[in-house]
Design goal:
The structure is a single chain. By secondary structure, the protein is an alpha+beta fold. The termini are far apart. The protein is built from 1 helix and 6 strands. Strand 5 (151-160) and strand 6 form a beta hairpin. The radius of gyration is 27 Å and the shape is elongated. It has one domain (7-172). The strands form 2 sheets. The chain has a 4-stranded antiparallel β-sheet with strand order 1-4-5-6. The chain has a two-stranded antiparallel sheet with strand order 2-3. Helix content is 28%, strand content 19%.
Length: 179
């Protein structure tokens, strides 16, 4: 008796191994493709987090920080001229050095893109960020016993083709008279 493989057995085993290898290669290809999406997803979340931190670091006062009564107003009625509302005041933009956003409310409705820009309006990240579009909404939110007039839900959304990132934060008016 011989203890070897016949030509048919060898051919069948090669076919089985080839099919298994093709399946493994398809899985590997999917994993590699997915890892590139993961990098783009991480970049989108980094953009969203950076902008959310910028917004949360802004004052949340009843009056525009340039208003004469900003430190003493205990409601919007106490402002000398400009009470803060959702959205920027006339002429304010994120990029205007003479009249920049200066309150959390100013970012409501803000859209950046295509591309990512820093606070001076300079492009950030080069071609990798060229198709990113970022939007911001701020809406009053009753939160943990705090009335809606005293807290905001901030939502930052970054879209870049097949990549979508959303981050939210809550900002409360914990010191309304501190600009």
């Amino acid at each position: 008796m011989c203890s070897g493989f016949t030509l048919i057995e060898a051919t069948v085993s090669m076919v089985v191994v080839s099919i298994a290898a093709a399946g493994v290669m398809l899985l590997f290809q999917g994993a590699v493709r997915g890892s590139a999406d993961t990098l783009a997803q991480k970049q989108a979340y980094a953009v969203a987090q950076s902008l959310l931190e910028e917004i949360e670091g802004m004052p949340f006062t009843y009056c525009d920080p340039r208003d004469a009564n900003v430190k003493t107003a205990s409601s919007p009625a106490g402002c000398a001229a400009t009470a803060e509302g959702l959205g920027p005041e006339l002429g304010e933009t994120r990029y205007a050095p003479a009249n920049p956003f200066n309150n959390v409310n100013d970012y409501n409705g803000f859209v950046m893109g295509p591309g990512v820009l820093d606070v001076s309006g300079a492009a950030v990240g080069g071609p990798a960020f060229a198709n990113y579009t970022t939007t911001v909404t701020t809406v009053p939110l009753a939160f943990a016993g705090i009335p809606a007039s005293e807290s905001l839900l901030i939502t930052v959304t970054v879209d870049a083709g097949n990549v979508h990132a959303v981050l939210q934060g809550i900002r409360t008016r914990y010191a309304p008279n501190t600009p």
